[in-house]
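Bench notes, afternoon.
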Amino acid sequence: MWPLRRARDPSPSRLAYRLQRLWLTPFMRVLVRIGLPAAALAVPVAMHVVDADNRAAIAGQAADLRRAIEERPEFMVEELRIEGADRAVGNALAAAVAVDLPASSFHLDLEALRTQFEAFDVVRRADLRITSDRELSVTIRQREPALVWRDREGLFLVDPEGHAIARLDSRTERADLPLIAGDGAADHAGEALELFAASEPLTERLRGLVRVGERRWDVMLDRDQRIRLPAEEPVRALERAIAADRARDLLARDVADLDLRLPERATVRLTADAQDHMRQMRRLNSGESN
């Protein structure tokens, strides 16, 4: 009789089983499909880059490629256009700000250029952008003059925030703007504008405002009249003075100063002529009584 053969076990060996399980893991699949080919490519590349001459050649080729892209016509900026500013201001800004054109848009530092434009007193804000027409467009928001400020150094135009815009040679250049004077007056331009608005009934007689002691205002009228306002709530005090003038024609009299610095008590100082007249009247009255 022939000996019986032992049936072959169909199950895989322990090693084969483990290899199959390992192959089913995502990490192993990625390693075999991507990692090994990448490593095979990286080794010769690394061996090539190790050489200094090869590195220099690669760097030169990269620089040439970058330069070729940056200098393509669609990336070149040919002209500077300034909008939103007066012609004189625009020409002055264009001449003062260093923009070397034509230049690649990759080489223009818009933030640095914006800082240069906004460094000028007349410029409140500058918005820069590169247009599809290969222009550097600069939109200027100018500071609008609201007051003329006279200080120890001369006359200046200031905006509603008190920012000095330009120097004036003569008050007549901007006689249309109200006048403020005194140290620190421009720092309180907003309050000065409120006082000018409140003093509208006195517009024909109003000469300006003077900042006194860097803490309060005096309203200057013609005929050398002065209204001394308090440091606190000066607008309300001025409105009271105007109401008193309407009721009693107070400022139409021989009044030199109307002192409102003490809210609870207003003081009136007469002109020198009125004081002399008062003294004469007193002497006459005293003589008649004798």
